[in-house]
Amino acid sequence: MAEADERTFLGLSDVSISEDIPVEGEITVPMSSHSQDDDYSTLDEPVKETIIRDLKAVGKKFVHVMYPKKSNALLRDWDLWGPLVLCVSLALMLQGGSVDSKEDGGPQFAEVFVIVWFGAVVITLNSKLLGGTISFFQSLCVLGYCVLPLTVGMLVCRLVLLASMGPINFLIRFIVVIAMFAWSTLASTAFLADSQPPNRKALAVYPIFLFYFVISWMILTFTPH
Amino acid sequence: MATVDDLKFAEFGDSANLLPVPGDDTTVTIEDPGQKPPASRGLPRGAGREEDEELLGNSDSDKTEQLLAGQKKSSPFWTFEYYQTFFDVDTYQVFDRIKGSMLPIPGRNFVRLYIRSNPDLYGPFWICATLVFAIAISGNFSNFLIHLGDKTFHYVPEFRKVSIAATAIYAYAWLVPLGLWGFLLWRNSKVMSIVSYSFLEIVCVYGYSLFVYIPTAILWIIPQKAVRWVLVMVALGLSGSVLVMTFWPAVRDDNRRVAVATIVTIVLLHTLLSVGCLAYFFDAPELDYAPTLSPAPPLKQATTMVKAI
Q: Could you confirm whether the keyword Transmembrane appears in this record (chain A) (predicted)?
């Protein structure tokens, strides 16, 4: 038996390759279709490329929020960079500008931060407890990115407040904040509502409404010194 | 061949169809996911369901509760599924419970009728959260309106008050039920015939009974003392009577004095919460002056111009 094995094994030794034919080439291992995070191939690239790729991903998600269609980009490739940037910029813009503000009743930086993140976590837990199928970080990602219209609204309000105060000033800010609040709420429900059981959709959407309402109130009542 | 039909799995359709009570709503919402859940426009449907339960009688509901009590909450408390059992409510159920908390009908026990051994934590938690923000925002807005004509008043959003409101309301909605539950348990050990509700059912009743304060807080913006006190009376009457009618059957078999003292304490704490919120978050409208801009003397104008920068 071993001899037979040996014979089949030695079968290839009869084949001789002529020395004229060069044997060269590359051996490539066929890789399975990979997602964007295959670490070993991005380890050698320059840092600038990595940062630009992440920035592009964040920017693409911003565009998805501003024009909410039912795409899966926000849900599938979640990241929390965008929400962090938005939350920090919103909290910074909500500061009154005076350092030792004893009488400034506006929200402190930590309060805004806690409200945004703790609120998003509570809403995510709520939707999961009601039987939603979305994952924890995907939901955090969507809720954080949908703060973008309100951050833009805050920027507009600060610019409008550079002009003189008065009822027209307030009216402009009111309209802008209401529009951005509606945009945020509609964008986030467009992404999140499908993952809820159908007879509990209103129960899952109401906390999102409350969340953006509170942020809108903080923006609207902002008064600089 | 007949055997093929015998072997074929018979579709029962949506399993919720088998249940007479919530079946209609579930099927409608599954077919039309874009629609609002029908319970929000189903006020007559809610009344019909109450009549069904009225016909069922109390004995049937008790048996169902005993059966259901055996099936619920089988997961250990460190798993996620355990907490999911507390959120096992549909939209129409939440609406029905809210409706039931605002319309006390004599003889109808909120716990028996609406909760029926399915207490949920969704209602208490989100009603308290909404109430916190409603009181803080309404108080702020009302103060702004009251001091509108006053040039020396500098408007601040008063964000501190949100934290204070949150502490007060969540403490009321969770610590008072804890105390009441412990008290009922203690009395139950002495007087056997007392019905003691579970802790979550008491939390549920208290949470839903706070719902009537949300429109009340919004209406408290009106800067008239008489209007505000009328609102307090109405809200207190509605939610207080729901609480009384829930807990009276639980304590009436006890010593007369203890029973009355318990009910009085419940009502008193409820009153304290509403009056306290009104006093702390809403400034008193001292003068009923209309908020018109009075012509300010030049000195005051200079100071306000400096302030506005």
A: yes
